[in-house]
Protein: Probable peptidoglycan glycosyltransferase FtsW
Organism: Vibrio rumoiensis 1S-45
Amino acid sequence: MVKAKVQSIGKGFQGWVNSPAPEVLYDRQLVWLAFGLMLTGLVMVTSASFPISSRLTGGPFHFMSRHAAFLFLALCAAAVVIQIPLQRWMKYSMHLLLLSLFLLLVVLLAGHSVNGASRWIPLGLFNLQPAEVAKLSLFVFMSSYLVRKSDEVRGSFFGGFIKPILVFGCLAVLLLAQPDLGTVVVMLVTLFGMLFIAGAKLTQFISLLFVGLAAVSFLIWIEPYRMRRMTSFWNPFEDPFGSGYQLTQSLMAFGRGDWFGQGLGNSIQKLEYLPEAHTDFVFAVVAEELGFTGVVIILLMIFALVYKALRIGRNALESGELFGGFLAVSISIWFAFQTLVNVGAAAGIVPTKGLTLPLISYGGSSLIIMSVAVALLLRIDYECRLSSMLKPTPQPKSRTSDTPKELENNETE
């Protein structure tokens, strides 16, 4: 009897291994990629925050427990968002944009200031960063706008460029007042990509691109601390204990990492040599502890997620789900560019901008909003698969549907 039970269990397991997985209406690989990045972030934030957590709170797991709470909130928010139809997002896109404008005003009036920047609204459990909400709200609004005004985008200069830029300009002014140039640059690059995908004229696109680059250069030039970041970026070892301190410590972490790293938890730079080791520069700790191999694996996971988002956007556009297609493309550009800036800043390729590594860096607002973005990708993919299933398949023309003339010709033959 026991032998029969063991055989039945063995056959059941063999059948489970050999049988293909049932068809589902969402991208399972995207789900596992997101979960993998979230768990990687929890492990690396735990490792990178031991020293500063012990100094500030007397316990090594303070930031780990907070990040775990942020993960729980992010998953709850994603579970709610994935139930909301895309049409509702499109319908209330203007309301979401107005909410983000209101939050940006609130943070200027009563925000929490850290290191001279007023970017957070205290909410008890965590500090809300309205800049993260502004990113998502702008992309949702622009996706809706590109669907409603597609003819203007392709033909009219005012409708195609000036109107979206005016909306972006309102957000940019409030963000620069915090100040937060990094978020403005991410939003601008993503907006350019969305307009290009929507079919805006190339000459107008290139002209506006030059205007955007000139504006960013001017904003860097008028602020002394931004100029110091630029000059220290070119040669951080010229002032290793001043303006180039953060970058030199990050480069030391990369140098110590070698191929396979020093081992999880064995970073030296995180012992309060490297500032912001668990937030903006968590990738430097990854490089030191996991080495080149760990860096490559994490980057492949992020860009696999970006590729999935692009595929979902392309499928949505081809199936006529324009709002979902534009939104998925914007999320892919957002994740890819923010990853490039964060990793580039840690590796000394681009100036430091204070942007988080998607789904990995410590920060409640960033983690929750990016989890919502992944849930939106899953919803877009779900609705596209559902619509393709519900579309009637074309039936082959039967012989009984021939006209009398065709029947007469067939009989003659």
Q: What stands out?
A: Residues 404-408 have pLDDT under 50 and may be disordered. Residues 2 and 8 are 10 Å apart (CA to CA).
